[in-house]
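Practice set, problem 2.
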Amino acid sequence: MEFLTRSEAETEDLGRRLAERLGPGAVVAYRGGLGMGKTALTRGLARGLGCGERVTSPTFTIVNEYEGGRLPLFHFDMYRLEGPEDLFDIGWDDYLARGGVCAVEWSERVEEALPPETVWVALRRCPEHENWRAVAVEGVDLT
């Protein structure tokens, strides 16, 4: 299913709607280049899960943890990882076992290690409008 978001706020709102459909242990894997709205979507996930903390990109920390909502949110940036084998060095299995939602930026770097029930989200810029995004969601129904 594909959605068109016309602003960062609309991308965040789509993330909020997605969060309402996610349960414990859900993995949301993002595909999309720099500046496509992955962190904005994650801010919406956090809002939808009830996490009130400020959401930032985990580029240098690999993972940011947000607690206090109906489920914890673990926001990963896999850009600096060499491959799926590096997941185990960062405690990936422990995060999955904690029953939160794992949001994974640069998921293509670790794709073969993600669970089969992963929700896939592809974000791309609309050529006609710089700030608009086409967001394809697979693995969960948002209607």
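Problem 2, part (b): a different protein.
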Amino acid sequence: MKRKASAVWRGDLKSGRGTISTESTVLNETQYSFGTRFENGPGTNPEELIGAAHAGCFSMALSAELGKAGFMPESIRTTATVTLENHPQTSWTVTQVHLDLTASVPNLSAEKFQEIANAAKAGCPISRLLKAEISLDARLA
């Protein structure tokens, strides 16, 4: 299975602008720029997109792990916070992804929930792709 996304950039780093598109057209020439990445300009940025991908992937992985353990989630809400830091030796680097999870799962103990959530974090394809530290706060609702 292969999925495609593309980016077009025009101009220099600070004053240039780009667009990001996905094969599914969910993103279609979506704007990104220096301002959307390093300031608070309108549009998206690569780190936000990584966060969305990771939150979505982890939520699906958790649903799968819960199902394997015999539990049916009512809801899984995941926020991925991607940290981008400027290090003198390496320049800009994604150094951490923190997953903040709240799930409603009937008849599941807090201890078993933590075990399953950690298995989902380890098994999520996007978690395995990323080399940054990935932390997790998991709560049953």
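Answer key, part (b): The chain has four helices and six strands. Residues 46-68 form the longest helix (23 residues).
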